Amino acid sequence: xxxxxxxxxxxxxxxxxxxxxxxxxxxxxxxxxxxxxxxxxxxxxxxxxxxxxxxxxxxxxxxxxxxxxxxxxxxxxxxxxxxxxxxxxxxxxxxxxxxxxxxxxxxxxxxxxxxxxxxxxxxxxxxxxxxxxxxxxxxxxxxxxxxxxxxxxxxxxxxxxxxxxxxxxxxxxxxxxxxxxxxxxxxxxxxxxxxxxxxx
Length: 200
Ligand code: HEM
What we know:
By secondary structure, the chain is mostly helical. Helices cover about 80% and strands about 0% of the residues. The protein starts with a helix and ends in a 10-residue tail after the last helix. Protoporphyrin IX containing FE (HEM) binds near residues 32, 82, 114, 155 and 159.
């Protein structure tokens, strides 16, 4: 039941777009709105994946942790929509034009590298792949960190054109908040310091 609710919650952006589409609320430029919105929702889902562990460890709420795979796959789903939106509405699915864009617009290059990094993570998220890859699975899935770094860079480059960085800084602050304690903790564990009581 909770998983169904979580699944429906992850589909919220799709319901939102349909609702806006039916009521004429997709702004004056629907393709641009949809490309941007899918990019933002992909980023939100990636952040929820990062939030899963601290929320369970410090807040004792395991909801995100138990649905981490679903969240990761939804992040990838919104990214695929984001990419398809760009390919269809900006490039008309013309491969040479797409290739030219990847090579000439820096923010597209950075976005594509992030997408490429996340692709093996999405495809190896099953139990079968976890078993097959063993310890290497965890190492492979550390790619989420550079992918998020590149996503923020991509976001920053998009907003640089409009000189509007407020949201980007919010994402930077959040990623620091989520990752710095994690780094400190793993360094302490590497140095042999036992974790505090009650924290596994
Ligand atoms: C992990 C990968 C990616 C993430 C998280 C991401 C996220 C975002 C975000 C948050 C925005 C800004 C939305 C806004 O301004 O409100 C954006 C814009 C955009 N992204 Fe991505 N993106 C990624 C990869 C890509 C890729 C692979 C492409 C195309 C090849 C792409 C094409 C675009 C375009 C065309 C825009 C709109 C630019 C504009 O309106 O000027 N993104 N993306």
